[in-house]
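Customer escalation, tier 2.

The customer says the design service returned an amino acid string that "doesn't look like it belongs to this structure." They asked us to rerun it and document both sides in this ticket. The original structure tokens are below, unchanged.
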């Protein structure tokens, strides 16, 4: 299976440093962005995520973001050498006529690529280091989960709830909510764990009960991957 796109793996790997030529002068040889394969089968997260939702979410919704991003970038072929991170991190590098599209479509691609990797059919327990960081920030795992669920529940309209690390404060953990397809990059934070609270993520199974979706989601959270993201953030 092709290695899925890993937005965290890309962290810090800008396609060019600030001192290099502007993106518009980059050669146009990079392929368009692609929809990453799921790291598990459509039905592997049942019953928490139903198969139909997974198919629609990945094959239709996520694909639409990838196609929308490529469509926007096609208007400025020189940008195709840029990484997704660099396009999202500094909006001023993106021409104004496609800035909103790149932010929304690129953000959708980034958030969903990470979201698939926040879940696993083989959910284990929280690793020691991540557990310590959670205890330090929130008091206990139970308190963190309650705060995360409450934040996701309160997010008005569509968006995301994230556990993030703050590099400006020794990678302390925080909870942030983001509207629409804003990403943790917009708030200068490192994503550790993110849950989609757009209705398309849960409506078929949970209907309007977002709180139930958030509570059930813990059953498929990939704690090992979350712990690895925190460690990677500290060492990169
Ligand atoms: Fe989504």
């Amino acid at each position: 299976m092709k290695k899925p796109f890993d937005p965290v793996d890309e962290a810090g790997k800008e396609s060019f440093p600030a001192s290099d030529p502007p993106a518009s002068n980059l050669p146009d040889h990079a392929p368009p962005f692609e929809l990453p394969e799921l790291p598990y089968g459509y039905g592997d997260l049942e019953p928490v995520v139903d198969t139909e939702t997974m198919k629609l979410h990945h094959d239709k919704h996520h694909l639409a973001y990838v196609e929308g991003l490529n469509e926007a970038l096609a208007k400025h072929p020189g940008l195709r050498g840029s990484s997704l991170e660099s396009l999202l991190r500094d909006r001023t590098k993106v021409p104004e006529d496609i800035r909103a599209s790149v932010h929304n479509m690129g953000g959708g691609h980034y958030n969903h690529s990470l979201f698939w990797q926040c879940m696993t059919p083989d959910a284990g327990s929280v690793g020691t280091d991540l557990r310590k960081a959670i205890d330090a920030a929130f008091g206990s795992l139970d308190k963190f989960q309650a705060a995360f669920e409450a934040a996701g529940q309160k997010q008005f309209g569509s968006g995301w709830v994230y556990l993030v690390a703050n590099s400006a404060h020794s990678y302390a953990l925080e909870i942030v909510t983001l509207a629409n397809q804003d990403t943790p990059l917009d708030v200068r934070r490192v994503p550790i764990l993110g849950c989609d609270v757009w209705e398309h993520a849960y409506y078929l199974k949970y209907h309007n009960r977002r709180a139930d979706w958030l509570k059930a989601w813990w059953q498929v959270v990939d704690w090992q991957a979350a712990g690895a993201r925190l460690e990677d953030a500290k060492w990169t």
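Tier 2 assessment: The sequence is consistent with the input. The chain is about 45% helix and 10% strand. The beta strands are 159-166, 172-179, 190-196. Sent an explanation to the customer and offered a walkthrough call.
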